[in-house]
Amino acid sequence: MMNTFLRHLAKITLAGSIALGVATIAHAEDKIVRIGFQKYGTLILLKTKGQLEEKLKPQGYTVEWTEFPAGPQLLEALNVGSIDFGTTGEAPPIFAQAAGAPLVYVGYEPPAPEAEAILVPQDSPLKTVADLKGKKVALNKGSNVHYLLVKALEKAGLAYTDIEVNFLPPADARAAFEKQAVDAWVIWEPFLAAAEAATGARQLANGSGVVDNHEFYLASRDFLDAHPGVVDTIVASLGEVDTWINANRGDVADQFSPALGIPADVLEVAVERRKYGVKPITPEVVAAQQKIADVFHDLGLIPAAIRIADAVKKPQS
Which positions fall inside the Solute-binding protein family 3/N-terminal domain (predicted)? Predict the structure, then answer.
């Protein structure tokens, strides 16, 4: 009888130990902050400086960084739970929200309309956006430049259907552009400045007078709900880096360059075309995003109408 009792007690103890181990692993995983970044913006400097890790370490958190070629790919990772936080331009969160991604807008950078443009080869006969009629134009589907193209065409009196759109990520688009397999390329910084420097490409138009080109910071809803203080720490740290950038413009390109593998003189151009100073989402910014979402819905680019306000972080009470 005693042996049976001891065997039963051992099973209970083993089960409890396994459960505790699983709980411990789960708790440890909860302490990992997974951040997605791209080859631009404040997030990559935050990664380089390491100050977020310093702030979160006393709370037991570690930070994992993953690079993405563009915003749509980054938000797909957020949608499937591979990352918790990231940054994109205006269009990607609209496409992602329309696809049901559980994202939340938690901050934005000032408008930077000159940081995206429609490029053509140096020797191209195309001189204006109106000349794009019937031409092949490359862009990353669902990226911030998608809206630039729509509005630039509209301003030039063309419909979106008047051109042939080729959806290509930046690296493939650059290759197609250099081979002149496409007539134009709609792209953002720092790819924009890099292409201009390397190929002598010309701008048909940039976002000035056409689009705002905001940069947004987004978190997964589950992560924000479970770790609101961590999200606040990330945004506050981004604000500190933005303040440093504005006070040290001459040093920014040198710090970006090793992380990006792009020459500092090229990055100086890209940095000057952007504005820095993260802020909470405002009703005006929500309205601007809603306008973009409505345009995409009208064009059939997203399957259903969405409400941007449903995906905005609520003010703390």
Answer: 32-252
Q: How many CB atoms are located within 10 Å of the residue 286 CB? A: 16
CB half-sphere exposure, 222, CA atoms < 13 A? 12
pTM for the complete prediction? Answer: 0.84
CA distance 223 to 189: 29
Contact yes or no for 277/290 (Cβ under 8 A): no
- Looking at residue 28, its amino acid is A
How many residues does this entry show for the chain? 317
Of 61, 63, 68, the C-alpha closest to 48 is: 63
pLDDT digits (tens, 9 = 90+) for 137-150: 999 988 889 999 99
pLDDT tens-digit map of 135-190:
999 999 888 899 999 999 999 999 999 999 999 999 999 999 999 999 999 999 99
Distance from C-alpha of 229 to C-alpha of 33, rounded to nearest angstrom:
12
Instruction: For the chain, report the end-to-end CA distance as a whole number of angstroms.
Output: 60
